[in-house]
Amino acid sequence: MSKNLTKRSEDYSKWYNELVVKADLAENSAVRGCMVIKPYGYAIWEKMQAELDRMFKETGHQNAYFPLFIPKSFFSKEASHVDGFAKECAVVTHYRLRTAADGKTIEVDPDAKLEEELIVRPTSETIIWNTYKGWIQSYRDLPLLINQWANVVRWEMRTRLFLRTAEFLWQEGHTAHATETEAVAEAEQMMNVYADFAQNFMAIPVIKGIKTANERFAGAIETYCIEALMQDGKALQAGTSHFLGQNFAKAFDVKFANKEGKQDYVWATSWGVSTRLMGALVMTHSDDNGLVLPPNLAPIQVVIVPIYKGDEQFEAISAEAKQLMARLRKLGITVKYDDRDTHKPGFKFAEYELKGVPVRVAIGPNDLANGTFEVARRDTLTKETVISADIVSHISDLLEEMQAALFNKALNFRDSHITEVNTFDEFKDVLENKTGFISAHWDGTTATEEKIKELTKATIRCIALDRKEEAGTCVYTGAPSVGRVLFAKAY
Amino acid sequence: MSKNLTKRSEDYSKWYNELVVKADLAENSAVRGCMVIKPYGYAIWEKMQAELDRMFKETGHQNAYFPLFIPKSFFSKEASHVDGFAKECAVVTHYRLRTAADGKTIEVDPDAKLEEELIVRPTSETIIWNTYKGWIQSYRDLPLLINQWANVVRWEMRTRLFLRTAEFLWQEGHTAHATETEAVAEAEQMMNVYADFAQNFMAIPVIKGIKTANERFAGAIETYCIEALMQDGKALQAGTSHFLGQNFAKAFDVKFANKEGKQDYVWATSWGVSTRLMGALVMTHSDDNGLVLPPNLAPIQVVIVPIYKGDEQFEAISAEAKQLMARLRKLGITVKYDDRDTHKPGFKFAEYELKGVPVRVAIGPNDLANGTFEVARRDTLTKETVISADIVSHISDLLEEMQAALFNKALNFRDSHITEVNTFDEFKDVLENKTGFISAHWDGTTATEEKIKELTKATIRCIALDRKEEAGTCVYTGAPSVGRVLFAKAY
User: What percent of chain B has pLDDT over 90?
Assistant: First the structure.
């Protein structure tokens, strides 16, 4: 295996693209903008799914499944939703193919045109709220707390593996509530679930905030988000949770009888995270040698590699390795013993480094004689020799330590890349030279936000929920401001 | 809740359609032929998925994800596959919508026509084998054992919830092997995994067999199947596993270097089961009172219903109920305590009967005084009084007993509905009056198979793997036959 990975400092974007492919996470497919998620990448996604699914169920949600297709007319029903979502979509117009006149190729059967075109879902608010109309009559039917794991399609012109693909996998929660207060609390709760997941499971520090009107989800009253910072100083929106007010209930006429018997429209939320998180994972932790995976997300947490000459050594070393594997597995640790005789230890070391396996254990003849193991950790690339009596607890502790260390490292990087600026020159200077989040006063208008974007490509990532009240003047217009917002260039 | 469920004896088909909707499993959506899988139905599907996924991984398979869309031209590459799969499909022709001249509705943007139409996958052999070309170079890359959980679309004209829907959920395994022997063994192994799953997890007895040439998967050399029998005497194909030979490898030019360095085409299999299994589950076990679920698949295995007057009784009974719930949960049993005060016990009993909850426990004031519980089992609709000291082990044993009892009941029904016939009059008589599988000699020709289908609507469900060698004469033509095959009307 030849790594030949571009260095991050040379070309961060190229490094990312190469790493995703070389580490067997994903690759481009024959279909423009659609990716193939390879088994190693999918195994990481499955771990994310399992943990998120557990968290959703723990907070009272159930899974369901709604149609892939949405009738075109549904998108006209919620006015602001049309512009945001019904533009760059895959449109199904026909339902049959036929053999062409050449007898070999196939062509679309012109007689099989749909009366109404179907849109491949870019998000499912419309089809779900059309369904909820039949499910909700009374306050007893509320809250309705539903999540869907699904594929969605948005016809993106410029795509990048995981970060922006025409088809991607995600979960979308869609809830219905009797009161505004409950719906807002749900939207906030799910933002908190996402933040908890990102930080404690993915080891990615995030800032919780709300989006400006300009960056809000199409059809939302308020969009909550978690924003992460990548190693190149660009921000990445890692999850959003929307308070939708009564917009979709009104568009699809979903009313309920409250306890007093009065009819009212239902209050809604929706929230989602996607395979984009795979991109965030790679770009937060990995290095010039390859992937670095937090132990929680590693499909293989520990790999054991034997170093031997001849069958006799191999057998003695294998016995030790297998015993260690069994003891680690008892603790719920995922272990692979790589005893392939088709590849040399050096090749294997490079392969597992590239694939981000957190802990590598090597056993050679000296180790066998001394009752030791060589333990290498992926994040720091350091090695130590551990005696047999301590090995299991050592590895178990090490995995926990690495999970925490990766979070702290990312947190330090993030915190050192939030810069307060008070002039537009400083603003541009930080963006040019230091990158990261820029904390600046803003006059609260969309016009200013768009002007700054036009001049610098930086957007307002969020108004942090924990920002302090601080009177100031807008970094661009000088108009009054009640507090700082976070700008950054973003994925 | 009003059940008003049509009786099976009155109209089996109507009973099924009503039950699926009333038991909250699924419903039709606004999109023709596409269903909504409701939370209760989806929870059952999740249990199927989890068990199948475990079985696939135990047999060495990994999950991956391939694109939803397939370029139209791919379907022309494997000749027999075209006719079987590229006909009734959803075809994406455009990638953008725009606001219409009225400023309100939206329409397809005629300038956004795709150069090549994309087909929403009806099955993924073509896109996957196109991908495998890049993954397989040498025998070291084999076997490649991959599964995908996905949605697929086949534009069916007549649809029925779960049994035949335009969009459905499934898993599709796609494996690549160095030798024919290995590929055949894989196809057989997966048929056995499906049979094991159907029988031991779903409590549905199945017959393992191979399909005739006529009923084979488009592009397969051999199709293995498991066939189940529904309560109305119609057969249902519950899963298929295909040995694809080198057909797809040749169509997509997937070669490998064997150990001797010689190039050869790869050998393939594919295998799948779908949400159709939900239909099989309902039609195998349920009765005129509603769903009957095997404990393995029940989202709620035990429900506890309190019967009380006044707060004081309620509190004492709730304390007992919660203690029982905690003890059962420790054993991994899923328990719901339904203490809603908005519904009476009789209403709750009817609801859980309809939804097929295996065990219902009621606690009233007399039970409290006597230290007893009333335990009702869903399959036999029988009740007994159990003393407190025995309750946990009683319920735990009962769940196991019910799982076995449901299988045995279905097995007896199935076995009593396999009829050997030797004349075509007998054949028609059984089909008309007794229904079920008809075991008959057949001359091995597609012409006879099609003629019988035309005359009786019965098809050859399979050639059972365990059929005995028995010379005979075809029930229709009188031509020689080497063994009996199983005919039936089928879903």
Answer: 93
Q: Residue B84: is its pLDDT beyond 80? A: no
Tell whether B95 is covered by a domain.
no
- Assigned token pair, A373: 């193991």
Both B56 and B158 in one domain: the answer is yes
Q: Where are the alpha helices (DSSP H) in B252-309?
A: 276-285
Quick one: A25 and A131 in the same domain? yes
Q: With b meaning 16 or more CB within 10 Å and e meaning fewer, what string describes B304-323?
A: bbbbbeeeeebebbbebbee
The Cα A144–Cα A123 span in angstroms is 18
Q: Are B30 and A74 in contact (CB < 8 Å)?
A: yes
| Residue in chain B nearest A147 by alpha carbon | B39
Burial class (CB in 10 A: 0-12, 13-18, 19+), A103: exposed
Residue type, A460: I
The four Cα atoms A121, A123, A128, A129 give a dihedral, to 10 degrees, of: -120
CB B126 within 8 A of CB B98: no
**CB-CB contact of A94 with A108 (8 Å):** yes
Beta bridge partners, A462, equal A486
Q: Are residues B337 and B434 in the same domain?
A: no
- Does residue A114 fall inside a structural domain? no
pLDDT tens for A207-245 read 999 999 999 998 999 999 999 999 999 999 999 999 999
In whole angstroms, give the CA distance from residue A151 to residue B240.
25
Q: Give the integer Cα–Cα distance in Å for B20 and B4.
A: 13
Does residue A67 have a cis bond before it (omega within 30 degrees)? no
Q: What is the number of domains present in chain A?
A: 3
Q: pLDDT grade, residue A86 (50/70/90)?
A: low
Nearest residue to A436 (alpha-carbon basis) of A427, A444, A423: A427
Query: Would you call B342 and A97 a contact, using CB atoms and an 8 Å cutoff?
Result: no
Q: Identify whether residues B159 and B280 lie together within a single domain.
A: yes
**B365 and B439 inside one domain:** no
ipTM above 0.90, yes or no: yes
Q: Between B31, B46, B98, which is nearest A67 by CB?
A: B31
Residues linked to residue B145 through DSSP beta bridges, in sequence order: B175
Tell me the sheet residues that pair with B309: none
Same domain, yes or no, for B372 and B328? yes
d(CA A390, CA A46): 32
Q: Which CATH number fits the domain that encloses residue A26?
A: 3.30.930.10
| Whether B460 contacts B487, CB under 8 Å | yes
Question: Within the 317-376 window of chain B, which residues sit less than 8 Å (CB to CB) from chain A?
Answer: 342
pLDDT grade for B3, boundaries at 50, 70 and 90? low
Beta strand A144-153 pairing with A62-63: parallel
The average confidence (pLDDT) of chain B is 96
User: Which residues contact residue B428 at a Cβ distance below 8 angstroms, ignoring those fewer than 6 apart?
Assistant: B455, B456
In contact, B319 and B326? CB cutoff 8 Å: no
Please spell the DSSP secondary structure of B109-140, one letter per residue: -TT-EEEEEEEEPSS-HHHHHHHHHHH-SBGG
The amino acid that residue A335 corresponds to is V
Give pLDDT, residue A3: 65
CA-to-CA distance for A57 and B252, rounded, in angstroms?
43
B207, B192, B267, B260: which is closest to B237 by C-alpha?
Answer: B207
Does B46 sit within 8 Å of A90, measured CB to CB? no
Evaluate whether residue A146 is within a structural domain.
yes
Tens of pLDDT, residue by residue over A23-82, are 999 999 999 999 999 999 999 999 999 999 999 999 999 999 999 999 999 988 877 777
Which one of A92, A125, A126, A175 makes the best mutation probe of the B interface by having the most chain B beta carbons within 10 Å?
A92
- Out of A398, A432, A453, a domain closes at A398
Domain region containing A457: 418-488
> Would you call A296 an interface residue with chain B, using a CB distance cutoff of 8 Å?
no
Give the length of chain B: 491
